[in-house]
Write a structure and sequence with these properties.
Elements: E1 2-7, H1 11-22, E2 29-30, E3 39-44, H2 49-66, E4 74-79, H3 80-85, H4 87-93, E5 99-102, H5 109-117, E6 135-139, E7 141-142, H6 153-157, E8 161-162, H7 165-177, E9 182-186, H8 201-208, E10 216-219, H9 229-238, E11 242-247, H10 255-261, H11 269-279, E12 284-291, H12 298-311, E13 315-320, H13 338-361, E14 367-375, E15 383-386, E16 398-401, E17 410-418, E18 423-426
Parallel strand pairs: 1-2, 1-3, 3-4, 4-5, 6-9, 9-10, 10-11, 11-12, 12-13, 16-18
Antiparallel strand pairs: 7-8, 14-15, 14-17, 15-16, 17-18
Helix pairs in contact: 8-9, 12-13
Length: 427
């Protein structure tokens, strides 16, 4: 079956798309033009208003292009947009869509799509990988039990539902059997995995780390309240291939702002970082912050800037607050003007760029392994890859060339140059 697909938003969406398209029970041929497809599949994001608009543009663009097709493919739309607004409301506004797949019915997506296409009911749970030979995302849980005042995810994806450990391990083995070298565990709150199964994340890590063929195992989205000394000891004891790379979304540093955000951890974030570094001395830390949250004073923003200066994160993402319909934060008083929010975002990003450049400069002259992701699209002989402290699609990358450099390989290299976010290496 010829399929044109688009997956918007986070890696968790990407996993949903790969699982769906790999489980149809027929050979799948991805195509680049909609006119050649039998199925056009769009997996949407609706986490923030900008994502909603991007998703709607993608659907409308597809509908317009499909009107010109002599043989019109089935147009199926899935994901968070459907979960946030409901398929009945969307169907009224977008009658061009043939099939809506809501997040609340995620497990039945393959059956619903196969039925619409007139295919036999699918059997199995294969994945059609879209990330190349080097890495794959492994989503281990759905939903979230937290009630952050700014977040739409619990209303879209529901409460925490952990994938059973045997299911996760089986999928990991399947991905490694396809030649994948790095597995990246993702969930809305990875530290909460297993809470509904009477298990802890450490139990899962102990099962995954010894798997044959696994070069790197990376953890994303560790809520600060779940970063316990027990978990950190487990990470240390597992050792390679489990990387000491921790993505801990703090969202702010000032206690009053964290309280208004309804964050599950409102104490001094420095205690979390100190705890991590006391157990994992070589840990690389990534985090995200929201600036311009309602009521954030200039003094509280400056407090955040000092915190970033002192903490020296390897990677930081900064988002200007968006008042999302249906969230508590949207109705809070003291909303910050957009111009102020954008100015604060630019200041914090400029500050972090200097820190990142300094930290990467310390890697120049060293030898490090580079996991090669893909050939550079413009420069023959040059490849895009990553060293262990760079997560795909989130951090910078390492440009690498030399003998034996091919996608999917882990190559020992000399780090010869850096910019604010990227490295250059020679094999």
């Amino acid at each position: 079956m010829r399929i044109w697909s688009l997956s918007l938003g986070c890696p968790k969406n990407r996993v949903d798309s790969e699982r769906l398209l790999g489980s149809l029970g027929v050979p799948v041929e991805p195509v680049r033009t909609m006119g050649r497809a039998e199925l056009v599949f769009i997996n949407t994001c609706a986490f923030i208003e900008l994502a909603v608009r991007e998703s709607l543009r993608a659907i409308l663009d597809a509908a317009q292009r499909l009107r010109r097709c002599r043989r019109r493919p089935l147009l199926a739309v899935a994901g968070c947009l459907v979960g946030r607004y409901g398929q009945q409301e969307l169907a009224r506004e977008l009658p061009e869509v043939d099939l809506w797949l809501p997040t609340s019915d995620l497990a039945r997506w393959p059956v619903l799509l196969a039925t619409a296409l007139g295919l036999p009911l699918p059997v199995g749970n294969a994945r059609l990988l879209s990330t190349g030979p080097s890495y794959a995302w492994l989503k281990v849980a759905e939903g979230c039990n937290h009630a952050c005042a700014f977040c739409t995810i619990p209303s879209i994806r529901g409460r925490l539902h952990s994938m059973p450990m045997p299911t996760v391990v089986q999928e990991a083995r399947s991905l490694l059997a396809q030649g994948v070298r790095e597995l990246i565990l993702v969930a809305q709150d990875l530290t909460a995995w297993g809470a509904d199964l009477n298990l802890k994340l450490g139990h899962l890590l102990e099962q995954l780390a010894p798997l044959d063929g696994l070069a790197w195992l990376r953890l994303l989205y560790l809520y600060p309240s779940g970063v316990t000394e027990e978990l950190l000891r487990c990470i240390k004891d597992c050792g390679p291939p489990l990387l000491p790379y921790l993505d801990i979304p703090l969202q702010h540093a000032h206690g009053d702002v964290l309280r208004r955000m309804g964050r599950p951890f409102v104490g001094d974030p420095r205690r979390v970082l100190d705890k991590v570094r006391s157990v994992l001395a070589d840990a690389v830390l990534r985090t995200t912050f929201i600036v311009g949250y309602p009521g954030e004073s200039e003094a509280q923003f400056q407090y955040l800037c000092r915190f970033v200066e002192e903490s020296r994160f390897q990677h930081v993402g900064v988002f200007a607050f968006q008042a999302e319909e249906g969230t508590v934060a949207a109705s809070l008083p003291q909303q910050i003007p957009d111009a102020v929010k954008e100015e604060r975002r630019a200041i914090l990003m400029e500050l972090q760029a200097e820190i990142s450049a300094d930290l990467l400069a310390q890697r120049v002259g060293s030898r490090m392994e580079v996991l090669v992701d893909a050939s550079h699209p413009e420069w023959p002989g040059l490849h895009c890859g990553r060293v262990w402290l760079q997560a795909p699609e989130a951090d910078g990358m390492t440009y690498v060339s030399g003998p034996g450099v091919v996608p999917g390989r882990l190559v020992e290299c000399d780090i010869v140059e850096q910019t604010a976010y990227d490295l250059t290496a020679l094999a």
